[in-house]
Prior knowledge:
Elements: H1 3-11, E1 18-24, E2 27-34, H2 37-42, H3 50-58, E3 61-66, H4 70-84, E4 91-92, E5 100-103, E6 111-114, E7 131-133, H5 139-153, H6 160-163, H7 171-174, H8 188-202, H9 207-222, H10 226-241, E8 258-267, E9 270-279, E10 282-292, H11 309-321, E11 330-332, H12 340-348, E12 352-354, H13 359-375, H14 381-389, E13 396-405, E14 408-418, E15 421-422, E16 428-431, H15 438-454, E17 465-469, H16 472-485, E18 491-494, E19 501-502, E20 507-508, H17 515-539, H18 542-546, H19 554-564, H20 567-572, H21 575-579, H22 586-595
Parallel strand pairs: 8-11, 11-12, 13-17, 17-18
Antiparallel strand pairs: 1-2, 1-3, 4-10, 5-6, 5-7, 8-9, 9-10, 13-14, 14-15, 14-16, 18-19, 19-20
Helix pairs in contact: 9-10, 14-17, 15-16
Amino acid sequence: MNADGVRDRASSLPREPGVYQFQENGTTLYVGKAVDLRSRVGSYADPRSARIRRMVERAETIDIAVTDTETQALLLEANLIKRHQPRYNVRLKDDKSYPMVQLTSHEAPRIEITRDPDGEAKGDSSTGGPTVFGPYTNKGQVETVVKALRETYGVRGCSDHKYSGRDRPCLDYEMGLCTAPCTREIDLESYTEDVTAVERFLEGETGILADPLRREMEAAAEDKNFERAANLRDRLETVEAFHGEGGEAVQSVGDERAVDVLGVAIEGEDATVARLRAEDGKLVDRERHTLEAPTEDASEESTPTQTGGVPAVLAAFIVQYYAERQLPDALLLPERHGDDEVAAWLEAEGVSVRIPGAGREAKLVELALKNARRNVGRRDECGMLADALEIDSARRIEGFDVSHAQGKSAVGSNVTFVDGSAETADYRRKKLTDQNDDYDNMHALLEWRARRAVEGRDDRPDPGLLLIDGGEGQLEAARDALAAVGWDVPAVALAKAEERVVTPDREYSWPSDAPHLHLLQRVRDESHRFAVQYHQTIRDDVKTVLDDVPGIGPETRSQLLGRFGSIENVREASLEDLQSVSGVGEKTAETIKSRL
């Protein structure tokens, strides 16, 4: 695209905030944000660097998405960079993105919170796609508002799979969360009116939801149902703050309890950001993250200055890393990031940004820089694993294991690692049917995970790799389950004894010091630990075991556990020992022994 083409495209754009994408053959080359789309896009007629000039020359089209606020433009830019991984942007290698609210294009639209919407801008429904609102910084707040919208207007939240073919309403209808258009408990015309009301709220008409909530709160108070009134009051405060000054609620923090310290190191095309976390004055956590710098053709020279250097890396990291993560009270940086929109966002969120020159804070920044330099230029273990297994990506890995005691209290674990680190918020666990068959248990566990993914009931991104704790038998059972459901994700197994990596086609015996083997071992060991922990919780749940024993109530159950420590010890105790517990007589003790 030449300079005249850029100017012509810019002249037709609105003077509103939003994001723009330079595209080539449908592939996004670059994503940017703008306070004024017309002015910002027009500036590319005279590119500010050789790298940007090459990008503009390659581009064939410029796509835009208008947002309500500058903050939303900033967050939407981060989401699109993570989704499209454009080669001319600095990209943090994780799967986090800011939550958005989507109304699907179904005849009876579904409302859902998603990090990966089907449409990328509000108003896409005009082209037959969904209508998307956001992004927002606080997922908990969004969840509260969406629940209030569903309770007020009855918009469905179920998947299309659950919606189709129903002959009676589901539990959401009984709970007042849905008006059940699936069985025509409400006609589609009336349902569409309710969806329109939801759209009006998300577009900024706060009163359309706040007013009914206020009336309900006042009615609950008049009925002296003060607990319900208090809950409605809290919900009302969240709803009224939702749009706020920046398109969503912005809450300032008080004293600086949590401080994040960032250090950046760049070597060639590699950039590493080290993050230190200090809470209440104590260093509690440290981690390193790899960023992908804008790539050039092999024949072209690429330098850190062409990619914007440390400031560009800092700005990209701050916005992309804190998606779905709590912002700290303060950020300590080695130098200024130089992005006005990022600065305005952090200020609105109440985050203090400092570049210390001396003292303890300066020493923390120097420590972060040392941590960053330790990692820069080193090939990451996720990339090594993907290459070794010949798969597209191993950045996001899910591990699976099962645990039981001779078929009793059978459970399964599903852990998640992103860029080599445990992502505990994405851990899941499943209680399985009791059976002394590891293969069948693994089949049931993987079928459960795959079905949730295929039916859209799992809000996590699809992983690049599944790791099964076990050998050929467990892997075959897992792959059978994946095939039965139709979830196409690569799966391998890691056997404990020989540390052999088993794939459908072959086995690998990698060196014991191989970084990519260490990654699989960490995932395998964590899935095993999580499964055993859950199994022990189920096994030792005295309440479920003794629930039906006559004469055993909550207090006596608590005394039994306090006296003997675990259900195994209760099982092994003599009648005399059991009777030593207050409330347990001879007959009750005999009943306990017979039940256990």
